[in-house]
Design brief:
The protein is mainly beta. The chain has two domains: 232 residues, Jelly Rolls; 197 residues, Jelly Rolls, CATH 2.60.120.1440. Helices cover 8% and strands 42% of the residues. The strands form two sheets. It has a 17-stranded mixed beta sheet that branches. It is elongated.
Length: 462
Amino acid sequence: MNKLILFFVILTAWAISVPLQAAEVSGKIGYMSGALVAQRPDGTIKVMAPKSEVQEGDMLVTAKDSYAQVLMNDGTRMTLRPNSNLKIETYQFRQDAPKTDSAVFRLLKGGFRTITGLIGKRGNPDAYQLRAATATIGIRGTDFTSRLCATQNCQDDGEMAKTAGPVVEQPKAVGRVMLIEGAMAAKEASGKVRKLTLGSPVFEGDTLQSSAQSHGVVAFRDGGRITLQENSVFKVEAFKYDRAGTQESASLRLLKGGVRVVTGFIGRFNRDTYKFAVAGATIGIRGTGFDAWCNGPCAEGANDFGATSDKPLDGAGVFVWAGEVVLVSPGGSFIVAVNQAAIIARETGKPVPIVTIPPSVTGNTAPRPDSVPVDVDKLFEESSGSGEPGLYVTVHDGQVILAKGDTKIDLGRGETGFTNEQILTRLAATPAFMGGDNKLDNIEKSGGSRSGINQNGCVIGP
């Protein structure tokens, strides 16, 4: 008889002789493949099956070649890998009491994939945490995979070689949110919208949107920064930059509202590599700081600069507070020096100076982006993954904060963090052993409703 099965049988027989105390149910087991046991706080052992109840304090243990999905009361779904130990240290959830939410899980061995539920999305955003070794993972409503590797490249896990498939390359963050007040979101090229929080990554192709009474500061890889003002829409059409200088270009567009801009290294040596557009005009930079706005017909996407309006600043305009820019439209161009402003005239479509600049422009209350301290090198610091033992966390959606002592890194969609006793870092690429597990993905994504999982909750396949 397999030693592990014999171990389970002995533990089960012993557990039957020990009376269990009534405990509050925290969730239940969903789909399973193989063997799963739960060690209760009083030391008793329960062999689990689909629909078995899990409780606060349970240590969940999967056997070799075994997978198990845990469905928590708040909607959190966790799919454990083979040879994994996960403890539910704390779990408090009341539908009518968000302020009492608390969920703390501890990964002692192996790994799992999680799609979080209501805890952490309502009430206290720090209510959901995962702990492993010396690190703590703070969750901001997300989908992530975590693995605790005891050996190089997780080779102690025999499942990796059989189930690992190709890993899809994820785009790198071109910017990060450094300050946020109110609500901001990013709309991806696919149309998917994700909420932005402090530390959230910004990707090429993202359209950033701010709500009423909201603003945020985004720092870019080249050291440039923007402040997105309230009720504004701003698109990062293209952004390429590396420290070696082998690629350097940016194409940014203000679609609505206002933005404050400090330019970075892109465009300092070749101005044509930096493009900033607003409606039918472009702003050519000279290594500078400026405010741009797009209101009225401009914000509505109208190309008719002759549209009537009772607001003199409706349209596309710019105010310079450092350096100079050139405002260009099909009707001509105009150089705007420091403390000067210009707008595209509605009657002619030409850029013209604003002789008397309104206090609402000179006294812009949104913070200047250069007023927010940023260590760009550390913000975008990445390490090449060597596959050494330690904790790996890959974010599939949402945001994770990986913390070690007083040091932390923010991880967004497609990013992987790593930590051990010595270091805490963001990896330049996701290791192969962190993705491509077909069994785990099938359980997590389909919940057993698709081919590969039968009605009894067992995964079918090699």
